[in-house]
Amino acid sequence: MTLLTMSNIGFSYDEKSVFHNVSIQLNRGKLVGIVGPNGGGKSTLLKLIAKQMEPHSGDITLEGKPLAQYSMKALAKQVAYLPQHPLSPAGITVEQLVQYGRHPHQSWFNQWNDKDAEQVNQAIELMQLSDILQQPVTSLSGGQRQRAWLAMILAQDTDLILLDEPTSALDIGHQIEVMESISHMVASGKTVVLVIHDLAAAARYCDELIAIGNNAVVASGSVNEVVTKTLIDDLYDTNVDILYAPFDQAPVIVPRRQVHAKQ
């Protein structure tokens, strides 16, 4: 079932085209990875969906309603957005950060209530943060910190979650930790769209992939439809082999190295 549709989107920075006639459909309950070379517009795509930027042409609809008709507060109840490098206030604890996810649901007449506490507790449990609630966010390891931010997003209780490179700069252990946490979010009924550079993780965890290059969507669909030698070679201007993991047959991208003759 369709949650969000982007139709013929165009967007430019300082007259330099980033997108031209881009169309995307996001289905409910899926983990969707956005892949492609640096500078291709992946993060911009998330910002357009999060209404951090406005498209110069085309239409975006969420739940059948034009995105332009949502106020930012109303949108924050439908879409949660986590940028690549979020900044936390000095001294804020994990528990306080997760509680901040309920901010869009607060107002002068609607203060903290039982539902807020329930959402926060569920997020803490799902992200396995109970043992570090009183620790400052700045004291956490990379994987713990990302799980804390994900818990805040989860407490926001939106149908659609947008994550910009949530595993960047993490070692393989923490990457797996974060991707497993994101998988739990999807299993709980959320739709998650993430920008990801690690093609191996994208192929292993994502339900669908969207490949962006040359200011356009060059492919979208299941992992096996997108991760092909021809597409990866063209998209990244490289030369790879595609192997398949024995456990689940997920494609594994192996770069071919050049052979340099010794002098």
Description:
By secondary structure, the chain is of the alpha/beta class. The strands form three sheets. The chain has a six-stranded mixed sheet with strand order 6-7-8-3-9-10, sandwiched between helices. It has a four-stranded antiparallel sheet with strand order 2-1-4-5, with no helix packed on it. It contains nine helices and twelve strands. Helix 4 (114-126) packs antiparallel against helix 5 (142-155) and helix 5 (142-155) runs parallel beside helix 6 (172-187). It has helices spanning 42-49, 72-75, 94-100, 114-126, 142-155, 172-187, 199-205, 223-226, 229-236; strands spanning 2-13, 16-27, 31-35, 57-62, 65-66, 79-82, 160-164, 191-195, 208-213, 216-222, 240-244, 251-255. Helices cover 31% and strands 28% of the residues. The chain is globular. The model has no long low-confidence stretch (mean pLDDT 90). The chain has a domain at 1-76 and 160-166 and 199-262: Rossmann fold, CATH 3.40.50.
Q: Assign the CATH superfamily of the domain at 1-76 and 160-166 and 199-262.
A: P-loop containing nucleotide triphosphate hydrolases
Q: Which CATH-level-2 architecture of the domain at 1-76 and 160-166 and 199-262? A: 3-Layer(aba) Sandwich
Computed Rg: 19 Å
Strands of the biggest beta sheet: in what spatial order?
Answer: 6-7-8-3-9-10
Point out poorly predicted stretches: none
Q: Percent of residues in beta strands? A: 25-35%
- Looking at CATH, which topology of the domain at 1-76 and 160-166 and 199-262 would you report? Rossmann fold
Question: Could you report the average pLDDT, rounded to the nearest whole number?
Answer: 90
Distance between the termini: 60 Å
Structural class by secondary-structure content:
alpha/beta
Membrane topology: Peripheral membrane protein
Domain ABC transporter: 4-239
Keywords: ATP-binding, Cell membrane, Ion transport, Iron, Iron transport, Membrane, Nucleotide-binding, Transport
Subcellular location: Cell membrane
